[in-house]
Amino acid sequence: MNKTLNLLIQFGLVGFTATGFLLTALKLPQYGLVANLAGQVFWLYSSYRAWRDAEQIGIFIVSVCVTLILAFGVVNYWWGA
Fold first, then answer.
1. Which residue among 6, 64, 70, 75 has the highest number of C-beta atoms inside a 10 angstrom radius?
2. Between 57-79 and 29-54, two packed helices, what is the crossing angle to 10 degrees?
């Protein structure tokens, strides 16, 4: 994999996830969910690569489940009743 792409993925993974947790801790869960959902793009890619390269399918399954949960949370906060 391209070294620059790998670096971008690692920064995106940590940056968006940490920002999401920080926003949630600051009592802004609706924004924390959005930041974490954006970070899931990087988690899904990384976990897919781990599945394909090292047969770590559990990581990929958990990433898909967390993505669906975060998507539900975003819909609940932003378009829910």
1. 70
2. 160
Distance CA 11, CA 9 (A): 6
Q: Are 36 and 17 in contact (CB under 8 A)?
A: yes
Cβ atoms of residues 40 and 72 within 8 Å? no
11 φ, ψ (degrees, to nearest 5): -65, -40
pLDDT tens for 35-51 read 999 999 999 999 999 99
- In a structure prediction context, what are the per-residue pLDDT tens digits for the chain, which is 81 residues long? 689 999 999 999 999 999 999 999 999 999 999 999 999 999 999 999 999 999 999 999 999 999 999 999 999 998 875
DSSP designation for 56: -
